[in-house]
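FYI - complex with BJW, inputs then prediction.
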Amino acid sequence: MAVLTGAGVSAESGVPTFRGEDGLWRNYRAEDLATPYAFRRDPELVWEWYNWRRGLIGPCKPNAAHHTLVEMESRFEDFTLITQNVDGLHRLAGSRNLVELHGNIWRMRCTQGCRSGWEDRSDTLEIPPHCPDCGALARPDVVWFGESLPARALEEAFAAAGHCQVMLVVGTSAVVQPAASLPLVALQRGAYVVEVNPHPTQLSEVVDEVVREPAAVALPRWWQDWLAEGNRQAGLAKRG
Ligand code: BJW
Ligand code: ZN
């Protein structure tokens, strides 16, 4: 089983999504701020955006969707959770086989490359923060437009998409590449693909099943149905 999540899985935890009306910040779109170009031009502006988001995400708790994915992981031998989210809520919920495709908002790295992946959860960041080793500008350890995704994470994600039998695609608009092609790879390889999203996306037309509900409602129910179906089949098998 493989699962691909996007911002929608954290919506009911209070984390804003990127696209749609709630996705705007001071009239900027994610596409204008989440770029190396924006950071080079105005690191303070970009850091202010990240600081604002860190302040919002900090108090947020995993919701029923995150918890259900932890439970699923305990029932499958082969389970990979691929997330585009940088909020860290999957790990906080207890997911272990987790691939963070777009990095993590609580980590930083040095723009000169001397240090990477240090965690800083403080809500009193001096803007813009600097590398404690060389004093250069620090940046959030996330993946911006035009940057490559972490090689290992990308490999793991495509491997999981390529061999899973079932893939759940939860709370993503499926417009950002290369994450958006993971469900297509799974479909091509014959996996059964389920989309969980209250709104239609370009994937809706091609997947095997669509659940048009918020993730925190849909996932627990989908999982209960799955377990019930499994028990029913096991019962039938026993009876011959
Ligand atoms: C619910 C719900 C509820 C609501 N329950 N659901 C043309 C020009 C330039 C570039 C490109 C181009 N074509 C393709 C590219 C490449 C580009 C790209 O894909 N751009 C597209 C936008 C066109 N991709 C990249 O650049 C990637 N790198 C790359 O390709 O490298 C190779 C390369 C190099 C050089 C040139 C070209 C290629 C990198 C992408 C990095 C994305 N980074 C971000 C920011 C991360 C850091 C941060 O958080 O600040 O990642 S952007 C943002 O989008 C973030 C997300 O992970 C990502 C996906 O968004 P997501 O999760 O789908 O959220 P939303 O808001 O879009 O959707 C939420 C969904 O939830 C909606 O559908 C709701 O309905 C639903 N929902 N409530 C369930 N309760
Ligand atoms: Zn440094």
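Residues 21-60+105-142 form a domain with the SIR2/SIRT2 'Small Domain' fold (CATH 3.30.1600.10). DSSP finds eight helices and nine strands in the chain.
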